[in-house]
Amino acid sequence: MFAAEFEPAQLDGRRRSPRAPVSLDARIGRGGLDRALCRVVDLSIHGARLQVYSPMKPGSMIWLTLPDIGPVAAKVVWSDDFVAGCQFQSPLTVAMFETLLELDQTPRSMS
Asked: 74: which strand partners?
């Protein structure tokens, strides 16, 4: 037998920055000429969740070309079939984030 002290992890669901559901067409590149289409479906200033058309390897670095913003370096943090989460190497500015929210193509109900 052994004894140990530990501090429980905080599971309060808080993120570093607010996230917004969006629908934005973008492109993924890994350097060179390989470019693939994707859709940004969730966005924060620190990262994005992407719908992709081929599996992505966690840990890989990509260039995510965002509309009106251009290429942003990001690391694939997780991937599950055709969805992947990435963390931007440098956070987006508030102005960039707001620009992308304005370009959001998510259909809105007219109620």
From this structure: 62, 88
68: left (phi over 0), alpha (psi -120 to 50) or beta: left
Indicate if the pLDDT at residue 48 is higher than 70.
yes
Residue 38: CB atoms within 10 Å:
24
Beta pairing, strands 20-29 & 83-88: unpaired
Residue 39's closest CA among 15, 87, 107, 48? 48
Chain center to CA of 72: 11
How far apart (Å, rounded) are the C-alpha atoms in residues 51 and 48?
10
Q: Which two tokens stand for residue 99?
A: 């620009």
Asked if 64 and 49 count as a contact pair (C-beta separation under 8 A), the reply is no
Phi, psi of 43 (to 5 degrees): -140, 140
Residue 1 pLDDT exceeds 60:
no
